[in-house]
Here is the input.
Amino acid sequence: MHRAAAGIVAAVACFAAWRPGVAEGEAPSPRAAAQADLASTDPLLAAEAALWERLRERGRPDELEAFLVLFPQSRFAAEVRRRRDELAADASRQRRLEEARPQTPRPRGPAPPNLSAAAAAAAVAPDCGLLAAAADETSVTVAGVLRRGQERLVQGMLDAFGVPADAVRLRLDPFEGPYCGALSAVLMDAGMPPPDSPPRVGLLGARPLPEGDRLRLRVEMPEWPAHLSVFFLMVSGEAAALVSDPQPRPPGAGAVLEDPRWKIAAPFGTDLLLVVASETPLFERRRPAVEKLEDFTPALAAALQRARRAGTRVAARAVVVETAAR
Here is the structure.
């Protein structure tokens, strides 16, 4: 269980790194001000409150169960259990209505693992990453990017839920770079579709990409009209705005994106592509061609928060770009 405990602590750290953002010129809401005050005194409590705020209105039973695993002593635990039990009671009543006759009791064996709850918990186990997870009746899939060395936290959380090794499908792409703040902003306020659902992003060319080669990628849009934004986050601590659509692309549209200016150069390592599809333009004004990550990250967080408050659909993917000298 020690690996599971490490996964829980790491998930708390991931959310503790987030701070409620406020757009420039906009007065903070009472809730945002309260969260900021709490974050300044106890970041772990702030992380816990931020996650519960996210799950309060749209949390599914498996996500509520994952919250209780991550925060077993939460001050919200009673409310979480009450909501989870309400949903369970509704499902139970529906099953009773559908039962035409009594069922013959069957001997009970060991309870199978809750794969949906395991998937939800594993997706937030790393302290820095952007993962999507899904479960069916027989397996759990977790895919995305995470800081190098954090793969063990994902596996540890799945072990804690008792998921058999042959039921686990991991597609984890590790990186080393200053991307945690940007990924935390996306994690809190953008939708993460299941691993194999659009938007889909794939790199074209060799891996690692050698110096002088052009960056090329294939993108498939979600099943709704969306503006495409693509950002290249660099190990040097900079962010480049590669694509910023003024008009939405059709549902499900595919495209190969490339530009003669997108050439691989030093410093080498693991850069990160951040691809965002949004119903409206993500930023009110186009971002600089290249800016420091410390400027880009709060602007991204504020843009995603505006979209969430407006009820605008946003979906994101991140892809590691490994580069090397020739």
User: Anything to note?
Assistant: Residues 35 and 46 are 6 Å apart (CA to CA). The chain has two domains: 2-98+114-175, 190-324.
